[in-house]
Amino acid sequence: MAIGIFDSGVGGLSMVRAVDSIAPSADLIYLGDTARVPYGLKTTEQLEEITADNFRFMIDAGVEKVFIACGTISSLLCNKGYPDMGIPYVTVINATAKSAAAATKSGSVTVLGTVATCRNRGFEKELLSITDNLSITYVPCQDFVSLCESGRVSPDDPLVMECVRKSLEPVPGDSDTVILGCTHFPFLEDAIRRVLPNANLINCSYETAYANRDVFREGSGIRSFWVTGDPSSFSVNSDMLLGYHVETGRHING
User: Fold this and answer.
1) What is the pTM assigned to this prediction?
2) Domains of the chain (ranges plus CATH)?
3) What pLDDT shows up at residue 250?
Protein backbone atom coordinates (compact mmCIF):
# COMPACT_ATOMS: atom_id res chain seq x y z
CA MET A 1 0.00 0.00 0.00
CA ALA A 2 1.09 3.54 -0.70
CA ILE A 3 2.02 6.15 1.90
CA GLY A 4 0.22 9.50 1.75
CA ILE A 5 1.96 12.87 2.07
CA PHE A 6 0.15 16.20 2.12
CA ASP A 7 1.00 19.88 2.39
CA SER A 8 -0.38 23.23 1.29
CA GLY A 9 1.76 23.30 -1.84
CA VAL A 10 5.30 22.43 -2.92
CA GLY A 11 6.74 22.39 0.60
CA GLY A 12 5.92 18.76 1.21
CA LEU A 13 8.03 17.86 -1.81
CA SER A 14 11.00 18.22 0.53
CA MET A 15 9.67 15.09 2.25
CA VAL A 16 9.22 13.37 -1.10
CA ARG A 17 12.84 14.26 -1.80
CA ALA A 18 13.84 12.75 1.55
CA VAL A 19 11.91 9.55 0.82
CA ASP A 20 13.55 9.43 -2.63
CA SER A 21 16.93 9.22 -0.87
CA ILE A 22 15.87 6.85 1.93
CA ALA A 23 13.35 4.51 0.28
CA PRO A 24 13.22 5.15 -3.47
CA SER A 25 11.06 2.09 -4.16
CA ALA A 26 8.27 3.18 -1.78
CA ASP A 27 4.93 4.07 -3.36
CA LEU A 28 3.68 7.57 -2.53
CA ILE A 29 0.50 9.58 -3.06
CA TYR A 30 1.07 13.32 -2.67
CA LEU A 31 -1.55 16.02 -2.21
CA GLY A 32 -0.61 19.68 -2.57
CA ASP A 33 -3.53 21.87 -1.48
CA THR A 34 -2.45 24.68 -3.78
CA ALA A 35 -5.92 26.22 -3.96
CA ARG A 36 -5.59 27.17 -0.27
CA VAL A 37 -1.88 27.91 0.07
CA PRO A 38 -0.57 29.33 2.37
CA TYR A 39 -1.81 27.55 5.48
CA GLY A 40 0.33 29.68 7.77
CA LEU A 41 -2.04 32.67 7.66
CA LYS A 42 -5.24 30.66 8.23
CA THR A 43 -7.34 30.66 11.41
CA THR A 44 -7.54 27.60 13.64
CA GLU A 45 -11.07 26.91 12.38
CA GLN A 46 -9.93 27.07 8.75
CA LEU A 47 -7.00 24.76 9.48
CA GLU A 48 -9.30 22.22 11.13
CA GLU A 49 -11.50 22.16 8.03
CA ILE A 50 -8.48 21.83 5.76
CA THR A 51 -7.08 18.99 7.85
CA ALA A 52 -10.36 17.07 7.66
CA ASP A 53 -10.52 17.55 3.87
CA ASN A 54 -6.97 16.32 3.34
CA PHE A 55 -7.44 13.27 5.52
CA ARG A 56 -10.65 12.46 3.68
CA PHE A 57 -8.74 12.51 0.38
CA MET A 58 -6.05 10.20 1.78
CA ILE A 59 -8.57 7.75 3.24
CA ASP A 60 -10.42 7.63 -0.08
CA ALA A 61 -7.09 7.04 -1.84
CA GLY A 62 -6.53 3.96 0.34
CA VAL A 63 -3.13 4.90 1.75
CA GLU A 64 -1.64 2.94 4.64
CA LYS A 65 -0.45 5.93 6.67
CA VAL A 66 -0.37 9.72 6.25
CA PHE A 67 2.72 11.88 6.65
CA ILE A 68 1.67 15.43 7.43
CA ALA A 69 4.43 17.28 5.60
CA CYS A 70 3.35 20.60 7.05
CA GLY A 71 4.57 22.29 10.22
CA THR A 72 1.37 24.30 10.51
CA ILE A 73 -1.01 21.32 10.53
CA SER A 74 1.45 19.28 12.60
CA SER A 75 1.52 21.98 15.28
CA LEU A 76 -2.26 22.20 15.25
CA LEU A 77 -2.67 18.46 15.84
CA CYS A 78 0.06 18.48 18.50
CA ASN A 79 -1.86 21.14 20.41
CA LYS A 80 -5.04 19.07 20.08
CA GLY A 81 -3.32 16.05 21.59
CA TYR A 82 -2.96 14.16 18.30
CA PRO A 83 -6.64 13.31 17.78
CA ASP A 84 -7.87 10.26 15.88
CA MET A 85 -8.19 11.17 12.20
CA GLY A 86 -9.47 7.81 11.00
CA ILE A 87 -6.08 6.61 9.73
CA PRO A 88 -2.57 6.42 11.29
CA TYR A 89 -0.49 9.55 10.74
CA VAL A 90 2.91 11.06 11.43
CA THR A 91 3.63 14.76 12.01
CA VAL A 92 6.92 16.59 11.51
CA ILE A 93 7.04 17.55 15.19
CA ASN A 94 8.30 14.50 17.09
CA ALA A 95 11.41 13.36 15.23
CA THR A 96 12.44 16.96 14.53
CA ALA A 97 12.23 17.98 18.18
CA LYS A 98 14.17 14.90 19.25
CA SER A 99 16.99 15.66 16.80
CA ALA A 100 17.11 19.33 17.82
CA ALA A 101 17.26 18.51 21.52
CA ALA A 102 20.13 16.11 20.87
CA ALA A 103 22.00 18.57 18.63
CA THR A 104 22.06 21.69 20.80
CA LYS A 105 25.04 22.34 23.03
CA SER A 106 24.11 25.88 24.09
CA GLY A 107 20.54 24.95 25.03
CA SER A 108 19.22 27.67 22.73
CA VAL A 109 16.97 26.42 19.94
CA THR A 110 15.25 28.58 17.33
CA VAL A 111 12.19 27.43 15.41
CA LEU A 112 11.63 28.97 11.98
CA GLY A 113 7.99 28.59 11.02
CA THR A 114 4.87 30.07 9.54
CA VAL A 115 2.76 32.54 11.51
CA ALA A 116 0.40 29.74 12.58
CA THR A 117 3.24 27.42 13.58
CA CYS A 118 4.70 30.15 15.77
CA ARG A 119 1.26 30.76 17.26
CA ASN A 120 0.57 27.11 18.07
CA ARG A 121 4.08 26.36 19.44
CA GLY A 122 3.87 22.61 18.89
CA PHE A 123 7.64 22.24 18.54
CA GLU A 124 8.12 23.94 21.90
CA LYS A 125 5.67 21.55 23.58
CA GLU A 126 7.53 18.54 22.20
CA LEU A 127 11.00 19.94 22.94
CA LEU A 128 10.14 20.67 26.55
CA SER A 129 8.72 17.16 26.96
CA ILE A 130 12.21 15.89 26.10
CA THR A 131 14.14 18.33 28.29
CA ASP A 132 13.04 21.45 30.11
CA ASN A 133 16.55 22.90 30.04
CA LEU A 134 16.07 24.76 26.79
CA SER A 135 15.57 28.33 25.64
CA ILE A 136 13.24 28.29 22.64
CA THR A 137 12.76 31.19 20.24
CA TYR A 138 10.17 31.29 17.47
CA VAL A 139 10.90 33.32 14.33
CA PRO A 140 8.07 33.66 11.79
CA CYS A 141 9.35 33.36 8.21
CA GLN A 142 6.09 33.42 6.29
CA ASP A 143 7.73 34.99 3.23
CA PHE A 144 9.85 31.86 2.77
CA VAL A 145 6.68 30.03 1.71
CA SER A 146 6.01 32.59 -1.01
CA LEU A 147 9.57 32.27 -2.31
CA CYS A 148 9.30 28.49 -2.62
CA GLU A 149 5.84 28.58 -4.18
CA SER A 150 7.19 30.94 -6.84
CA GLY A 151 10.22 28.72 -7.45
CA ARG A 152 12.76 31.20 -6.07
CA VAL A 153 15.10 29.25 -3.79
CA SER A 154 18.61 29.89 -5.12
CA PRO A 155 21.13 31.54 -2.76
CA ASP A 156 22.45 33.31 -5.84
CA ASP A 157 19.14 35.14 -6.21
CA PRO A 158 19.50 38.62 -4.59
CA LEU A 159 15.80 38.75 -3.72
CA VAL A 160 16.04 35.40 -1.93
CA MET A 161 19.06 36.45 0.09
CA GLU A 162 17.55 39.81 1.00
CA CYS A 163 14.42 38.08 2.30
CA VAL A 164 16.37 35.40 4.18
CA ARG A 165 18.75 37.88 5.84
CA LYS A 166 15.90 40.14 6.96
CA SER A 167 13.76 37.27 8.22
CA LEU A 168 16.60 35.73 10.24
CA GLU A 169 17.62 38.93 12.03
CA PRO A 170 15.70 37.94 15.22
CA VAL A 171 17.60 34.63 15.61
CA PRO A 172 19.56 34.89 18.91
CA GLY A 173 23.32 34.86 18.60
CA ASP A 174 23.64 31.98 21.07
CA SER A 175 21.14 29.78 19.22
CA ASP A 176 23.28 26.93 17.91
CA THR A 177 20.37 24.84 16.62
CA VAL A 178 17.72 26.05 14.19
CA ILE A 179 14.67 24.00 13.27
CA LEU A 180 13.40 24.41 9.72
CA GLY A 181 9.85 24.05 11.02
CA CYS A 182 8.05 24.30 7.70
CA THR A 183 8.57 21.78 4.91
CA HIS A 184 9.06 24.61 2.42
CA PHE A 185 12.16 25.81 4.27
CA PRO A 186 14.56 22.93 3.40
CA PHE A 187 14.47 24.21 -0.18
CA LEU A 188 16.04 27.41 1.17
CA GLU A 189 18.61 25.58 3.28
CA ASP A 190 21.59 26.75 1.21
CA ALA A 191 20.46 30.38 1.54
CA ILE A 192 19.78 30.01 5.26
CA ARG A 193 23.19 28.43 5.78
CA ARG A 194 24.88 31.47 4.23
CA VAL A 195 23.30 33.64 6.94
CA LEU A 196 23.70 31.11 9.79
CA PRO A 197 26.88 29.23 8.80
CA ASN A 198 27.57 27.81 12.26
CA ALA A 199 24.09 26.66 13.22
CA ASN A 200 22.84 23.08 13.25
CA LEU A 201 19.99 23.23 10.74
CA ILE A 202 17.35 20.60 11.51
CA ASN A 203 15.41 19.65 8.38
CA CYS A 204 11.94 18.61 9.56
CA SER A 205 11.23 16.65 6.37
CA TYR A 206 14.37 14.55 6.40
CA GLU A 207 14.29 13.94 10.16
CA THR A 208 10.69 12.73 9.96
CA ALA A 209 11.23 10.50 6.93
CA TYR A 210 14.42 8.99 8.36
CA ALA A 211 12.96 8.33 11.81
CA ASN A 212 10.04 6.52 10.17
CA ARG A 213 12.00 4.81 7.41
CA ASP A 214 10.67 1.37 8.35
CA VAL A 215 7.18 2.56 7.35
CA PHE A 216 8.18 2.90 3.70
CA ARG A 217 7.68 -0.58 2.33
CA GLU A 218 9.40 -1.73 -0.85
CA GLY A 219 7.12 -1.18 -3.80
CA SER A 220 7.33 -0.06 -7.39
CA GLY A 221 8.55 3.48 -6.67
CA ILE A 222 5.27 4.95 -7.93
CA ARG A 223 4.84 8.67 -7.25
CA SER A 224 1.27 9.96 -7.70
CA PHE A 225 0.84 13.73 -7.39
CA TRP A 226 -2.43 15.62 -6.91
CA VAL A 227 -3.24 19.28 -6.34
CA THR A 228 -6.37 21.28 -5.60
CA GLY A 229 -5.28 24.20 -7.77
CA ASP A 230 -3.59 24.55 -11.16
CA PRO A 231 -1.60 21.38 -11.99
CA SER A 232 0.57 23.06 -14.62
CA SER A 233 2.11 25.68 -12.33
CA PHE A 234 2.69 23.05 -9.66
CA SER A 235 4.45 20.78 -12.14
CA VAL A 236 6.84 23.53 -13.21
CA ASN A 237 7.99 24.12 -9.62
CA SER A 238 7.96 20.46 -8.62
CA ASP A 239 10.12 19.50 -11.60
CA MET A 240 12.67 22.11 -10.55
CA LEU A 241 12.60 21.25 -6.82
CA LEU A 242 12.69 17.46 -7.24
CA GLY A 243 14.91 17.30 -10.29
CA TYR A 244 12.58 15.06 -12.27
CA HIS A 245 9.32 15.47 -14.15
CA VAL A 246 6.07 15.19 -12.22
CA GLU A 247 2.72 14.42 -13.85
CA THR A 248 0.07 16.06 -11.70
CA GLY A 249 -3.65 15.36 -11.49
CA ARG A 250 -6.26 17.67 -10.00
CA HIS A 251 -8.47 16.93 -7.02
CA ILE A 252 -11.41 19.17 -6.13
CA ASN A 253 -12.30 19.32 -2.43
CA GLY A 254 -15.91 18.69 -1.51
Assistant:
1) 0.96
2) 3-91+208-250 (3.40.50.1860), 94-204 (3.40.50.1860)
3) 83
